[in-house]
Amino acid sequence: MHDNRYTLSVSEIPDAWYNLAADLPEPIPPHCHPRTGEPVTPEDMAAIFPPALIEQEVSTERWIPIPDAVREKLAIWRPSPLVRARNLEKHLGTPARIYYKNEGVSPAGSHKPNTAVAQVYYNKLAGIERIATETGAGQWGSSLAFACDLFGLSCKVYMVRISYEQKPYRRSLMKLWGAECIPSPSPDTQSGRSILEKDPDTTGSLGIAISEAVEDAASHDNTNYALGSVLNHVCTHQSIIGLELKKQIALAEDTPDVLIGCAGGGSNLAGLIWPYVKDTLDGKGPRLVAVEPSACPTLTRGRYAYDYGDCVGMAPLACMYTLGHGFVPSGIHAGGLRYHGMAPSVSLLAKLGALESVNYHQNAAFEAGVLFARTEGICPAPETNHAIRAAIDEAVRCKQTGEEKCIVFNFSGHGHFDLLSYDKYLAGELEDFDLPQENIDKALADLPRASVEVSA
Ligand SMILES: *Cc1c(COP(=O)(O)O)cnc(C)c1O
Fold it and tell me: What atom of ligand 1 comes closest to residue 270's alpha carbon?
């Protein structure tokens, strides 16, 4: 019998986050104001974010200490396991070694609590008593509800109405952790009321839910807003994934040749790769691969430009790969991968040529997820299936070439609340659509202008 899991003790949880901004060959372009196009000031952000997070958002310090109070909460489930997928390797007959970092062991079932816990802590430190946020399928809402519960803050989640009705179990989790979760649009905000007046039966959208949460935070002194991906400080908090991986892969006496992660807003991928990027930029690190759905191919088919962070043009402009803020992807089951943009740090790496990207249709992704469940036993989230597909394809190429590569992918979450989509896949009811170029061109025709120049 060979070793297959590389575990660390609680005392080995990293005591500082790694901030990639310290080691980039060019700075991440600043976020800009949605109306003026000028770089946002700390004062602009102070209405909805606490000082420590505003500071982290623009920090170029390489190491940011993790407060003990945050490490204590992270220790509920961290360090997360690094597992060698020996049964999957055997099934594929590959000479490659496949490892996965299992972020599905967190209480909410994904990597998102890594940043939720940190964000809630800094809000509490700033005297904030309540946090408002939006959620689509409920992964971020449940992570934030959990974190608020740990630190004794109230939490209000505006959940896109169609998901509120179709995904009752994540809603139940939020209630269990003491959060108030209401369908969006709601009668509780100006933005919600005006939409309900025009269209009482609307299914809602993430853009509307964001507007409601931001309005709630901006109009209550004791309330702030929190975002679960994309922003620099979110990626910094997720760097704990790659930092732990470095220690664990050393225990396995191995070194990654390729790191793979699925990419929606880019935070779990950033968390995995950030601590390795400097080596890759210096020509001595692993290959880095982002995996997207074909229905929302931000890195593979989007443009590097300034665009609104939300789909209605209220949120700041970020410099990133984007499909256009008005882009509406088809209703694929990997809800967490349906965002039109990509984290600015991840986008910059793609622009610099340090990050590769691929995309897969959802049936190909689910096929990989089912194979993973049937060999390694764990049912992955539909988002995670994209990373698994790319890891399997890499391992199959190794079989053809005889290369004994070390492949590591991030297992961003489990799929226990997504079993209905597995039922549909197994019944042959999932559809793959080819995304016409004209849909992308149309959404990209409407990009806003920032005062900062971007070189493509
Ligand atoms: C939210 C989510 C994602 C996508 O978000 P990123 O910011 O790109 O990491 C991926 N996997 C799971 C399980 C998620 O919940």
Answer: 9
Ligand 1 centroid – CA 10 distance (Å)? 25
| Residue at 6: amino acid letter | Y
Q: Tell me, yes or no, whether 182 and 240 share the same domain.
A: no
97 & 122 share domain: no
* Atom number in ligand 1 closest to CA 230: 7
Question: DSSP string of 386-420?
Answer: HHHHHHHHHHHHHHHHT---EEEEEE-BB-TT-HH
How many structural domains comprise the chain?
2
List the domain range (segments joined by +) for residue 129: 46-53+111-231
Stated as kind and residue range, the H or E segment containing 251 is helix 240-251
Q: What is the pTM of this model?
A: 0.97
| Structural domain includes residue 3 | no
Of 198, 231, 264, the position where a domain reaches its end is: 231
**Residues whose beta carbon lies within 6 Å of some atom of ligand 1:** 110, 112, 139, 229, 262-268, 336-337, 381, 383-384, 412-413
Q: Could you read off the pLDDT of 339-394 as tens digits, one per residue?
A: 899 999 999 999 999 999 999 999 999 999 999 999 999 999 999 999 999 999 99
